Amino acid sequence: MSLLMFVALAGYLIAYRINQSAVVGIILAGIIVGPSLLGMVTYTDFVETLAHLGAVVLLFTIGLEFNIKDIAKLPYFVIAMFGIIVPALGGFFLASLFGYEFNASVFVGTALTATSIAITANVLKEMGKLQIDAAKAIIGAAVIDDVLALLALSVSEGLVGGELSIMSLLGTAGKAIGFIVIGILIGQTVLRGLIIRLDRTQIAWKYHETIFIFAIMIAFLYALAAEAVGLSAIVGSFMAGASFGGVKLTRGQIFREGAEHLQIIFASIFFVSLGVIMDLHFVTWNVLWFVLALSAVAILTKLIGCGLPALIQRIGFRDSLIVGIGMVPRGEVAMIVALIGLGQNLIDQSTYAALILMSLLTTIIPPLILRNWVFKRE
Fold first, then answer.
1. C-alpha–C-alpha distance, residues 263 and 257, integer Å
2. What is the pTM assigned to this prediction?
């Protein structure tokens, strides 16, 4: 734990030296200490668990900044839908062009459908841009994207296994959508009222930390429920945070500050893990060319697939550009898809390394573009 904190701190120093987002610096620090270079840290179960907690806490604190009504809009569904279809087709045809078999090409395309909401959200939060319209579009589309990516994964597994079933797809979609709808209803009608009532009790007056404990308890409960229906845990924790967003509490600052401090620790480990999971020793020259082409396709397909629908729906050119760039990071979501493909022997170790490296590049590049180009004047 001490070593991971040291690496996170080193990441902040790197980010400060190169004048970039903390996310970029911490990931680079993770690469340096990971198997690629020094080999001081490996992606053990312990690191994975802490990183998972970090992503959950990070999205909970992000959710506190939002109101569900601001992100549950039809235009965001359109953005998410095309943000799934265009990258999936692009990844499939590129892999086929490089001589990959059908099953491997399907999983490469599926890996490109993912969007890691944690990366962009953290960068926007760091820059104080969470409340702009483009940020709301990114968050809303990314939540929907997670449901659609889950369906895409189910379709892919059915295609390669020859067991594609309409009923299983409907069941998967029904569970995911049902969770989101029920979760929002409970959050808005029950949980908000509960935390307000708790804030007024004598227990909360004597032990202020009970507000924080209650809020974090709900965050992990929602994360657990999300994973139970096949969604990412971070979707659940984000919904929990959004349920408490805007609630007026006498001691509300207690749980907000507590969540922020918890996030600083565990989210840092999450970003370190993204660098640690990469092992450059599996990257040959042939794989490197595929990685460069795959990363270019990954960036362009999200930029076109998400940015163009946003522009057509009159979101504005600059905001549409931000939406397209903000939906580019694949992060841990694509890594999970790659791991499933490797575990089922649908892709080999070199293809797995290519997908991990693509995930890493698409995670690092968008913060650089947003910070050094889009928001540079501001």
1. 10
2. 0.73
